[in-house]
Amino acid sequence: MTHTLGTAGRDRRHRLGGFTLVELLVTLLLSGLVSAAVLQLLVGDLRQVGRLGRWLRERQAGERTLELVRGELQRAEAVTLQAGEAPLPAGCSLAGRAFVLQLQGRNRGGQSVAVLYSRGAAPSSIWRGDVLMRCGPAYGLDGEWSDGTAVSRVLIDALPPRDGFRIGATAPGVLSLELTRQLADGQTIRQEQVAPGG
After folding, report:
1. Helix or strand or coil: residue 127?
2. Domain limits at 55?
């Protein structure tokens, strides 16, 4: 005996069995849009994290530079600021850069040494913008100035012209150090420290 199902019975059994093609396409389209939005948010977050990481690294480099200058000011016996006139230490050259600071002190052997800081054009194209350079004795393993000849090194780059590094007297025996850097993405980092100095 054969039974024939009516049209309504077949439609009901067909609907119970799954989705229609239109429903599947709409679901795929919506899930694709949601996935694209989530992916775009993740990429934006990764860019922001990368930018923050670069900013933190640049800020740490600035802090290390200011700490070095501050430490050398503490060990110096005589300080000449940018307004003063001082003979260049042996083996040092300004090479077109502006005189910023000169320190006189003694190394571990008791010999008189000089350290010169200058600001201006970079010595090569690997540096960004103007640079702050240090010319003077290197440090030994004991953390003291060595007995060797003066060496010239870039301390930090990305300084804007003229005002990237400033040092001035704020009170008797107190100097203020200001470091300003202009990064490639347009960010400006300004850092300050106070140091003892003559």
Report:
1. coil
2. 47-196
